[in-house]
User: Fold this.
Amino acid sequence: MPHFKIYRTLLSVSLSLGSLMIAGGATYWLWPSQTATAPSPASVPVTTAEVGRRDVPVLIHAIGYVRSLRSVDIRSQVDGLLLELPVSEGQFVKKGELLARMDDRGIAAALEHAKAQRAVTQAQLVSATLDLKRYRELASINAVSAQILDQQLALVAQLQATIKSQDATVLASQVQLTHTRIHSPLDGRVGIRNVHEGSYVRASDAQALFSVVQLDPISIESALPQSRLPQLQALMNRPDTSSAVLRAHSAHDGTLLGEGRLELIDNRVSADTGTVRIKGTVANPLGRLWPDQSIVINLQAGTFPDALVVPQRSLRQGAHSAFVWRISDGKAFAQPVQVEYADTEIAVVDGLEAGDQIVTDGYSRLTSGATVKIVQSAEAAQETVADRSTLR
Assistant:
């Protein structure tokens, strides 16, 4: 009996040890040792650009409007029948080109009548002058009274005055006759007609026949904040032609429509808006700028020489400053920068070196020290560009 108890005890211990060994083995295979090496984190795909150095123009952006330098309403200066409009709507005309012809028969007849009257008066003056000469000879020998001599002198003076008046009448008729033919006062484009051939028009009519608008060169007007005034004045005082460059872009798609120069700063600041008006002249040989068209202007106000330049999309905004993701040894690090100037495409910064590699796309999953894989833009585009990273 005692031997049987000892046997049972040994059997229980053996079974317990076996269970522990089996459990330990299962644990070993199901839960690997914590000392095993963890897998390295996946690289973040990014697109990069190199920090460059170059001269960067400083641009002032504003909404502007196209204005014609000269716009003329074509009107008749005489009353009469409109016989001919030899130009078409929308046609480009040269200065001096015939635009309209009025019925001139009545004015031509009046001119001939005025000339005939002057001729009659001239003949009378010749006769009166000869008589005056004879009266003076007779008066010298007391053969004629002083009264008759005085009357003849008055007649000659009267006829001379009549000649001057008739000369003015002839001249006025000649001017009226020239007004029956209307010539273009400028190079420009003909607008829509308001009257047609065969219409009777008057000089007092409120409605013009049509208009002619100069398109090349053309004027650009805009209004800028008064804080820009010192900068604008400095531009106007520079003698070099490279300053104050004015470019006109389409408000629809940004296409460059023309280029010229700033010509004028208005003589006052608007008290209502706090802005000052500016005016420039732009070459427009292709007619891409149209009077009263709304545009976007870029005024070159200066230059950053030999500046550090990065793509504008590489800039991120942190809690305290702007920064970029700089690549070093295959890893990304947040690099604070000071932005000196930025437009829609590039930015001038301080805090980097020329040649540094910076991230332009794919930064939404970046953390400082993250391993990166440089890829093409299409792959990095999967990283949402609109996401904003924050400086950690």
In short: The chain has four domains: 45-55+306-380, 60-69+215-304, 73-102+181-213, 104-179. Helices lie at 2-30, 105-140, 146-178, 229-237, 377-380. The radius of gyration is 47 Å. DSSP finds five helices and 22 strands in the chain.
